[in-house]
Specification:
It is built from six helices and eight strands, in the order E-H-H-E-H-E-E-H-E-H-E-E-H-E. With 212 residues, the chain is of the alpha+beta class. It has a single domain, classed as Aminopeptidase. The protein has an eight-stranded mixed sheet, with helices on both faces. Helix 4 links the parallel strand 4 and strand 5. The chain starts with a strand and ends in a 10-residue tail after the last strand.
Length: 212
């Protein structure tokens, strides 16, 4: 199994929308995802792509790997391999000094595998590379599992948003993290532990946003 964090692309929308529909009410429309990918200047949408049987390396693919490495060092790498099954996705908005995690979800059948943490770590890493001063997100007050994950990375409650979720009027916690030296040290440690555990490729957090 091969896991890759990468920027969301238009062909991913069908799979992403299906996960969204099974995770949230009301879900985002496919047009909303297309806007985030093509039109929004502040959006950085991510997917976690899983390929169960990646193709074996060949000489051509090895040469491509060297080319990808050169692209990575220049900051303009592109995904060159085929797409796999989307097991999770997320959205990050960067507006001036604030990064806002707009959405995050994993496929219902893939929950409990640590994929949500990979997505979160990718977006925290992207916020660092975008020089965000802090990160904001909202989470249901009843979602103790998600809150525990966010707290692991240093997020703290800053306020309660009454009737935030339209489907049932549940409140949300406003959680935030300041990107200070302590946060960066914690993230570096947690990210390395996550890489050691899951062995995933992170194309997303260091790649410049693809031009449309």
């Amino acid at each position: 199994m091969s896991l890759t964090l990468r920027y969301m692309q238009l062909p991913d929308i069908k799979q992403v929308a299906a996960i969204d529909h099974s995770s949230f009410q009301p879900p985002w429309s496919p047009d909303s995802y297309a806007f985030e990918i093509k039109e929004s200047s502040v959006s950085h949408m991510v997917v976690l792509d899983r390929q169960t049987n990646p193709p074996p390396p060949t000489k051509a693919r090895q040469n491509g790997w060297l080319s990808n490495l050169g692209d990575k060092l220049r900051g303009n790498a592109q995904v060159r391999n085929g797409r796999g099954a989307i097991v999770g996705y997320g959205g990050l908005w960067k507006i001036e000094g604030e990064a806002h995690i707009s959405t995050i979800a994993t496929h219902p059948r893939q929950r409990g595998n640590g994929f949500g943490e990979i997505l979160l770590a990718g977006m925290v890493g992207k916020a660092l590379r975008l020089n965000a001063e802090f990160i904001v997100l909202e989470v249901r007050v009843s979602n103790a599992i998600a809150q525990s994950l966010y707290q692991k990375y240093g997020f703290r409650r800053y306020g309660r948003r009454r009737n935030y979720y339209r489907s049932d009027n549940e409140d949300a916690w406003d959680m935030r993290i300041t990107m200070d030296r302590e946060t960066r040290r914690r993230f570096s440690r947690l990210y390395q532990e996550l890489q050691d555990k899951h062995v995933f490729r992170d194309i997303y957090s260091w790649q410049a946003r693809p031009r449309r």
